[in-house]
Design a protein that fits this description.
Blueprint lengths: L1 E12 L2 E13 L4 E5 L6 H8 L7 E6 L2 E2 L5 H11 E4 L11 H11 L5 H11 L15 H13 L5 E5 L7 H17 L3 E5 L3 H4 L4 E6 L2 E4 L11
Parallel strand pairs: 3-8, 3-9, 6-7, 7-8
Antiparallel strand pairs: 1-2, 1-4, 4-5, 9-10
Helix pairs in contact: 3-4, 3-5, 4-5, 5-6
Bound molecules: adenosine-5'-triphosphate.
Length: 230
Amino acid sequence: MIRLQNLSMHYTMETTRIDILRAVDLDIAAGQRIAIAGPSGSGKTSLLLLLAGLERPASGRVLFDGVALDALDADALADLRRDRMGIVFQSFHLVPSLTALDNAALPLEIAGRRDARERARAMLDTVGLGARLHHHPAELSGGEQQRVAIARALVHRPKLLLADEPTGNLDDRTGAAVAELLLDLHRETDTTLVLVTHDMALARRCDRVLRLGDGHLHDDTGAVTRAHAA
Ligand SMILES: Nc1ncnc2c1ncn2[C@@H]1O[C@H](COP(=O)(O)OP(=O)(O)OP(=O)(O)O)[C@@H](O)[C@H]1O
């Protein structure tokens, strides 16, 4: 479903070059849960940005259901993200002026779906926020804001959910509850999950744990790993 082919990426700052990926190949099967771990600065966020088509590789390609992201222009990429991807960030990234309901409805509103608010309401119910529909982000706790962000990321039933340290800004207990919710929702939906996390307990609950370091992705020896075809 997702295939990284000979994917290389680096940042160049003046005279310094930071290699993020060096000729990486990876297949992620539909429905799989992949955790990406690795030291700070190893490039985990950059890898998610490549998967979302928000960064371009130096060489190689990302294939999403057989479609090469590099072959798409900015509009086509935006359409693909809107229709088939959901993204959850460490710092929630909700729109401050919108209520929980309007934030969660946003992907469907942008897609012109008439049932946007109805479906967002149902999704917020699912994440346990049925009683917070009209709260703005500033009126919600961190865990509640992240649950709105998860509802927004899943409301349009994306094929791919990208989550970048979704529990990183939450205390241990709230983080554990949010992680549980994310894994539960993954089970209920048909989504492929790529999860960046420092939390190895959470990572090990995924089908495969990959460690990014020095531009390479390694299978984590302590994890359950399987070879998958795309
Ligand atoms: N736009 C950019 N321009 C130049 N360098 C960048 C850019 N974005 C990230 N970097 C550098 O690339 C490296 C990888 O960054 P990235 O955020 O992908 O790492 P990470 O593994 O997600 O880190 P963390 O775990 O600390 O969030 C870092 O050294 C960072 O400073």
